[in-house]
Automatic annotation (TrEMBL):
Biased composition (Acidic residues): 523-542, 563-573
Disordered: region residues: 501-573
GO annotation, biological process: fucose metabolic process
Alphabetized GO MF terms: glycosyltransferase activity
Name of the featured protein: O-fucosyltransferase family protein
Keyword check for Glycosyltransferase: yes
Basic and acidic residues composition bias: residue spans: 501-516
Species name: Cucurbita maxima
Length: 573
């Protein structure tokens, strides 16, 4: 009975607590329901969106984004459209007083012909260096012959790409240039064909080519496959001549210039600023790199088939290693993420210069999601407008060259000829921003970004990209290819940061950079590298020089020179 009384006591005691506890929980539920109703949507509050993966069907989706990317660019603390201190630098390529006029040094009846090779930009380097070679030999230069038999299969001649009359007249004080070899009586002179090694110095031309010119009765020589046949370092006046050729004498024809200006005007009509992107994500480029982008067995089969065209291009056992070492182009999505992290928002307009992109629209989708204002010459010009250009690869490349050159920011995804020439040109004409991905460092970020916040990711991108943004003095004078870093042709305005107690400020003057003078001084010694004499050995050196991935290549079957040339041409521009 006592137990029963205690149980009834506790029952009546807790009977009154149950409604009270229920009312508290009910109030809490109403509070949280009201709070969730009044709170803004997460998609609205942070203004973010998810980027679709590069390849949703991949067995290892490297390109999949697992973190939220803002629509607006990250705060970078810098002007996105100009280079710091660019106003203190300018191109300066005038000849010195000791550089004699062409009519005083050119020997009569001594002629130089050159045959270029490769795509438009590779041929441009050959034309530039040919003028300097003619000056070294004190010879008259015949208007260069463009490559019409290469992979690009463009039948255009020099005068259909470049303004030949301007080219001849602008350089008349430096080198005598004529349209064709003169005739002796009724016969045209026969030119002796030969090839000089890569990186041939001034002394190399004088020792190898000049004796042949002197002993030949015709006194005319044609140098074949003329690309990168001139040393990177020459005396300063010759380097400045290179700049006068590349940046002033080589103008496109009026029809190309007008169409290019029309494309630029249409980009400017859409936005005050625009980015030009040289994507280089074509199947041949990816196959040669040996990299893997997460496309599964289909990607391995398709790119492997292309790769097997070259006999000694070994199969890559560890594609991830190539990516780790920065030897692979970034995917379009990765390029977009890099640009967003550098501060470029969704409203930025992008012009893309590219061939066939591997994977087509599926590959481009993440980049277009990041930057929907996405254009190419085919989207901002009609087929009728491009009709006179579309059948000629060099003319189409010239249009891309103009739009990229005029862009506020140029982004390159490889280190081919177009990227190098435009980087040098943009340095010469005011150091306009030129972004090169630091692929080796960025690879780690892209693979680990799922474990990072966007803030941490964007901060590291900005850190890793220091020195890769086209700022003045990023590259030391004499480093890299001359066409990419024409330091002897860039002058710096002297800035005197004088404190008030040190007297009045000096007048601004223009001076040559000491380092640039050192480039010329290096050539005063008698050292000449021993370049291979045989063509077989030379081909090996060529591909070490030109291969953006530093891989030795040989084509299977037949004449080894032409197939090697094909691969070089595919990758070079």
């Amino acid at each position: 009975m006592a137990f029963q009384r205690r149980r009834n006591h506790y029952y009546h005691r807790f009977r009154f607590l149950i409604p009270f506890i229920s009312s508290i929980f009910g109030g809490l539920l109403l509070f949280f329901a009201l709070l969730s109703f009044l709170a803004p949507s997460p998609n609205v509050s942070d203004h973010t969106h998810r980027i679709p993966p590069f390849n949703a069907a991949s067995d290892k989706a490297i390109g999949v984004s697992h973190f939220r990317v803002p629509r607006n660019g990250a705060r970078s603390g810098r002007d996105l459209w100009t280079s710091r201190n660019a106003k203190f630098y300018s191109g300066c390529s005038n000849a010195s007083n000791k550089f004699r006029k062409a009519n005083a040094i050119t020997h009569p009846n001594r002629y130089l012909l050159i045959a270029t090779s490769g795509g438009l930009n590779q041929q441009r380097t050959g034309i530039t260096d040919a003028v300097v070679a003619a000056r070294i030999l004190n010879a008259t230069l015949i208007v260069p012959k463009l490559d019409q038999k290469s992979f690009w299969k463009d039948s255009s001649n020099f005068s259909e790409i470049f303004n030949v009359n301007w080219f001849i007249s602008f350089l008349s004080k430096d080198v005598n240039i004529i349209h064709q070899l003169p005739k002796r009586g009724r016969k045209t002179w026969n030119a002796h064909s030969m090839r000089v090694p890569r990186k041939c110095s001034e002394r190399c031309y004088q020792n190898r080519v000049l004796p042949v010119l002197l002993k030949r009765m015709c006194q005319a020589i044609q140098l074949s496959k003329f690309d990168y046949r001139l040393a990177n370092k020459l005396e300063t006046d010759l380097q400045k001549l290179r700049c006068r050729v590349n940046y002033h004498a080589l103008k496109f024809t009026d029809s190309i210039e007008k169409m290019g200006e029309k494309l630029v005007h249409r980009m400017r009509a859409r936005s005050k600023h625009y980015i030009a992107l040289h994507l280089r994500f074509e199947p041949d480029m990816l196959a040669f790199s040996g990299c893997y982008y997460g496309g599964g067995e289909k990607e391995r089969r398709e790119l492997g088939k292309i790769r097997r065209r070259w006999k000694t291009l070994h199969q890559v056992s560890n594609p991830e290693k190539e990516r780790r070492h920065g030897k692979c182009p970034l995917t379009p999505e990765e390029v977009g993420l890099m640009l967003r992290a550098l501060g470029y928002g969704q409203d930025v307009h992008i012009y893309v210069a590219s061939g066939e992109v591997y994977g087509g629209e599926e590959t481009l989708a993440p980049l277009k999601a990041l930057f929907p204002n996405f254009y190419s010459k085919e989207t901002i010009a009609s087929k009728q407008e491009l009709e006179n250009f579309s059948s000629y690869s060099s003319r189409m490349a010239a249009l891309d060259f103009i739009v990229c050159d005029e862009s506020d920011v140029f982004v390159t995804n490889n280190n081919g000829n177009m990227a190098r020439i435009l980087a040098g040109r943009r340095r010469y004409f005011g150091h306009k921003p030129t972004i090169r991905p630091n692929a080796k460092k960025l690879y780690r970020l892209f693979t680990n970004r799922a474990n990072m916040t966007w803030g941490a990711f964007s901060s590291r991108v900005r850190t890793y990209q220091r020195g890769f943004m086209g700022e003045p003095n990023e590259m030391r004078p004499g480093r890299g290819e001359f066409h990419e870093n024409p330091s002897p042709c860039i002058c710096e305005e002297a800035r005197f940061h004088v404190k008030s107690d040190l007297g009045p400020r000096k007048n601004d003057t223009t001076r040559r950079r000491d380092e640039a003078a050192m480039v010329g001084d290096d050539q005063n010694n008698d050292y000449e590298p021993e370049w291979p004499d045989s063509e077989e050995e030379e081909e090996q050196v060529e591909f070490q020089d030109k291969d953006p991935f530093n891989t030795s290549v040989e084509y299977e079957g037949g004449n080894s020179e032409e197939p090697n040339l094909e691969l070089e041409e595919i990758l070079s521009d």
